[in-house]
Amino acid sequence: MTEVATARRSRITPEREAELYEAVLELLREVGYDALTMDAVAARTKSSKATLYRQWGGKAELVAKAVRHTKPGGAGLAEIDTGSLKGDLHALTLRSDDCTMEQNSALMRGLAMAIHGNPDLLAAFKEYLIAPEMAEFRTVVQRAIDRGEVRPDNPAIDYLMHMMIGGFAARSMIDEQPPTQAFLLSYIDAVVLPALGNQNV
């Protein structure tokens, strides 16, 4: 199965793949998930629908991988190693400027609604977005544990990703403002790091 998937993906260059993902996100912002079709993606990207299905299997996988590819963590959160947990979380936040965060916030709000009514999209998000990001956050936290910054038995460790996503989402819902670098950096310092018992705040 892995060999088949590898052969399937090898037909598209990384540059072309990135172009396709950007086009998918543009369409999502324009029409939303439910109205997005593989025909529309094919037309926008000048691809054949058969190629899209061969590469991604369907709309849910394509959308989940497009979101993963363009998220700051998609470039490899686990590769960030500044020497401190605070530095790592700040570096992750600074990968996106305020304009990109505002766009991503609006996109994720729309997808969150779609996920509730679409089991395929939920499964794709868990496999291609949530599970990899949780694994990368665990790597970052494990380094902090190894440095003595975080106690290994701290119960907040299991909720790091919840806290990070919560701060991002709640900014729009509660404050009616888009998330910004300044807001998220202050949120990390005031909420996330103290919860983890981190002393380098």
Automatic annotation (TrEMBL):
Q: Which residues bind DNA?
A: 37-56
Gene3D superfamilies hit by this protein: Homeodomain-like, Tetracycline Repressor, domain 2
Which UniProt keywords are present, listed alphabetically?
Answer: DNA-binding, Transcription, Transcription regulation
Q: What is this protein called?
A: TetR/AcrR family transcriptional regulator
Q: Entry's Pfam families?
A: TetR_C_11 (PF16859), TetR_N (PF00440)
Q: Source organism's superkingdom?
A: Bacteria
Tell me which residues make up the HTH tetR-type domain.
Answer: 14-74
Enumerate the PANTHER family for this protein.
Answer: HTH-TYPE TRANSCRIPTIONAL REGULATOR RUTR, TETR-FAMILY TRANSCRIPTIONAL REGULATOR
Listed InterPro entries? Homeodomain-like_sf, HTH-type_TetR-like_transc_reg, HTH_TetR, Tet_transcr_reg_TetR-rel_C_sf, TetR_C
